[in-house]
Design a protein that fits this description.
- There is one protein chain.
- The protein is α+β, with helices and mostly antiparallel strands and 403 residues long.
- It folds into 4 domains: 91 residues, no CATH class; 92 residues, no CATH class; 90 residues, no CATH class; 81 residues, no CATH class.
- It is built from 8 helices and 22 strands.
- A 3-stranded antiparallel beta sheet has the order 1-6-3.
Length: 403
């Protein structure tokens, strides 16, 4: 009898361990903050049914947790408000009539989701910072600059874990930010009796971000300079200045100075910097300086590249310093197969993964120079993948080839 009881206890311990492991392994992710209703005469309403209707596909239908703060950042539990509804399954409802001597605060809410919602269109893990300074900052704005094309500009969720694989929610740390709009930050000074762990993050993107399997990049385009009112590189003007070399509906835009300095490092303020308009830097909007001179490169839908495409080329592999598929070298080896002035370039791994999905950093990736991925420039000491490239040429190049 004693032996049987001991065996049952041992089995129960194993089951309990498995259950605990499975619970810890459940993947969760944090949405953006939502603030749809202002405080009215009745109160503040941030109900899940209303939010999911207004933000289709940006909130899961069955959240497992909810957090609420005032729009100024005060946690809901630190306010004096009483809530009529406060749950992950329903959202938040604060009624003025139920408060003592004060009205409801203006609240924002975010939800914790799980399962398919988090993993349907997911990026790779990113670990840009560590806690050796003020803390660990894995900010979306920084990661977008470092990994152009590797993250959607408006994620619907973010997941964070330590580099050893422990979910952020299972640690004892307090996070300054942990949401899809901002990213993640853990400040050492906010922790009790220690510093933050080293964290990594990955994002969940809208489905259409993953549906783009092929895309192509233009030349670097510089149609204006800041000598007048400022530097304006608008899509309509670029279409006129560079006929046949600019798509009308770009997917992404990147800008830098002709010497290669990124926009995030110039200190300039931009009136516009998006695919709908292009780039606009106005001199009078800057503090005690004029705008830098900028050039832009556009990422276009795959149909922009289909008019006059070359074959795929794979001259190099990353076994040495990296993978170099440059225009100069390709033209030397295949003078009749590559035009002298390509208008677009595509790159993907030899296994068929588009370059913008790999997370590698590219030293060169434009139609005028070609492609270069340098091993020494990759985060985490990893090696570049093996890439192949093809080019889009002016229509006259394909016409001459058929004559």
């Amino acid at each position: 009898m004693i032996m049987l009881a001991a065996q049952k206890f041992a089995v129960w311990c194993l089951l309990a361990t498995d259950i605990h492991f499975l619970a810890a392994a459940i993947q969760t992710c944090e949405t953006a903050w939502f603030d749809e209703a202002d405080v009215t005469g009745e109160g503040d309403s941030e109900l899940l049914k209303d939010l999911t209707r207004m933000h289709v596909a940006r909130i899961c239908s069955d959240p497992v947790d909810m957090e609420a703060r005032t729009v100024s950042g005060i946690k809901s539990q630190h306010t004096r408000n009483t809530f009529h509804i406060y749950s992950a399954s329903e959202g938040l409802l604060c009624l003025n009539s139920e408060q003592e001597q004060r009205q409801c605060e203006d609240f924002k809410v975010k939800f914790t989701c799980t399962g398919h919602f988090c993993s349907e269109c997911q990026t790779r893990w990113f670990d840009h910072d560590d806690p050796t300074g003020n803390g660990d900052y894995e900010l979306l704005s920084d990661l977008l600059n470092m990994y152009p094309g590797g993250i959607c500009p408006q994620p619907i969720a973010v997941e964070a874990q330590t580099v050893s694989g422990q979910p952020a929610s299972n640690t004892s740390h307090t996070f300054l930010n942990y949401d899809a709009t901002y990213g993640f930050s853990c400040v050492n000074a906010d922790q009790e009796g220690g510093i933050c762990d080293d964290y990594r993050v990955r994002f969940t993107c809208p489905e259409e971000f993953c549906e783009v399997s092929e895309e192509c990049r233009t030349l670097w385009l510089n149609g204006d300079d800041p000598s007048g009112e400022g530097d304006v590189e608008s899509i309509p003007q670029l279409l006129k200045t560079f006929p046949g070399q600019v798509c009308r509906n770009p997917i992404r835009i990147e800008a830098q100075t002709p010497s290669g300095i990124a926009t995030s490092q110039t200190g300039d303020t931009f009136m516009a910097y998006d695919v709908a308009f292009g780039l606009a830097c106005i001199n009078e909007h800057q503090e005690d300086k004029q705008c830098e001179d900028y050039q832009v490169i556009l990422t276009c839908p795959s149909d922009f590249c289909q008019s006059c495409r070359t074959q795929w080329f794979n001259l190099d592999n990353p076994s040495g310093k990296g993978d170099y598929e440059t225009v100069v070298r390709l033209q030397m080896l295949h003078p009749t197969l590559v035009c002298s002035q390509p208008v677009a370039i595509e790159a993907m791994t030899v296994s068929g993964n588009p370059a913008h999905r790999t997370g590698d950093i590219f030293q060169i990736y434009d139609a005028s120079r070609g492609f270069a991925c340098v091993n020494a420039e990759q985060p985490g000491g990893r090696q570049c993948q093996d890439y192949k490239v093809r080019f889009t040429c002016p229509l006259a190049f394909c016409s001459a080839a058929t004559d």
